[in-house]
């Protein structure tokens, strides 16, 4: 969840300058097996390296004419605002080149737009763009990209304890609107992340207590592949019930456009404690992982770690430029005294092994918005553009880390410190048997299938080399992959998953990694509900 902001100012600036000069950047070669030969994505032969790009075919005059009657705002490449709208948040992808960007202000305009695209029999591809924070810029993959900056409505209903959000709403403003009325949801810590967060999971420090953000969805308004507007709930039947199951897990541009979300809110806690502990050496960090594994696996909150304790162990290696070699940080949904009672269990187990934190901080808040702002920063801050790459792994509940496998992880992490100017880390976000992330969802079965993990890890690389430097990119990728591999080696036959919200364009078996045993049913619903594959991107279900 957390990014490792090693001081990379100059490198970041240099890479940003390089990537913004790129003309056509698209999808890396690893996707070749599943995508080559299709008319919608092709290899860009003009690039110095083989990237995938959208076919160069421009929109047909009939699609253009149809779009002009939808009432939505249209931005073509010749418009002055186009570049800003077509710019990827991950700057390694530069400016992508959709044929048109459509900005609707109502569900009816979305439906009219999808009808125009559908009339082109699958030759025109469509991508909704929420917060634009998908890791591989897939929300810019289509010929027609839908920008939701005019549909950012957030309506909090304190009587029903539900909030309705438009497809353009982002986490910061949503958290603020709910928090000001004493409500909350579990979600990630980046204020500009958008609505796709809730379609692929949505993990934050409150998730051990309240589950994934998607577990709180009580209704979805969907524009389907025929441009029909459907409302999906737990009471839906027939094909609506299939979509209700499928969208919660695989809803990102596979089955239609979700135009509005209704979430059941939680009561914001009266007291919250944000904390951070830094440990100085890799050897100490390996021990912290083992202690978290031991206490986090307990099924009894008295002897283990109660669900109020949201935690992330972030390893970034020694001499990385950050404090120490790792940090254990998070949010406790309760008073500082209760937090200290829980932390004492961790501290006692560590001090018995001679490990103490080199820096400790803990701050109690009596206002949920203040507690979130302390972690997320300004909730209204504008989008930050940066170059990065990440992999993810979720264990099967019993990763079985030992002293030697934990050391292998910290060794691999240390080998990646500063590689090719990047800033790297591996996070261990705690779930476990007491975590609501692993409970049965309240609003019916769903395709999201990560319900067992003890830890949920992201191997994250900040200032990751761009596609225009294949040798540096390959070197950095190899080091990042080695951290992932070292982690998986702790249990070679374990049922490891990957997190669809940390979408990884280099992941070859992405279908089973993201969806496990649900893949076949998802593919079947995809081919029935969108037979011409108008909702498409390189890791869409049509390619899995
Ligand atoms: C800085 C940063 C921090 C993050 N922190 C966390 C975290 O703490 N916890 C966590 O769980 N995740 C986190 N994420 C991952 C995040 O949840 C996913 O990247 C998520 O997909 C982003 O949603 P978006 O709407 O911003 O993305 P977009 O790029 O807009 O969309 C992602 C995909 O969903 C599709 N899509 C978008 N809107 C819709 C819609 N309305 N209907 C159907 N399909 C749609 C797009 O076409 C695209 O394929 C983080 C990401 C970033 C970049």
UniProtKB/TrEMBL annotation:
PANTHER family, per database record: BINDING OXIDOREDUCTASE, PUTATIVE (AFU_ORTHOLOGUE AFUA_1G17690)-RELATED, FAD-BINDING PCMH-TYPE DOMAIN-CONTAINING PROTEIN
Protein's UniProt keywords contain Flavoprotein: yes
SUPFAM superfamilies according to UniProt: FAD-binding/transporter-associated domain-like
Pfam families per UniProt: BBE, FAD_binding_4
UniProt xrefs under PROSITE patterns: FAD_PCMH (PS51387)
Ranges in coiled-coil conformation: none
Signal sequence annotation: 1-26
InterPro entries, per the entry: BBE, FAD-bd_PCMH, FAD-bd_PCMH-like_sf, FAD-bd_PCMH_sub2, FAD-linked_Oxidoreductase, Oxid_FAD_bind_N
Annotated GO MF terms: FAD binding; oxidoreductase activity
Descriptive protein name: FAD/FMN-containing dehydrogenase
FAD-binding PCMH-type domain: residues covered: 94-268
Organism: Meira miltonrushii
Presence of keyword Cell inner membrane: no
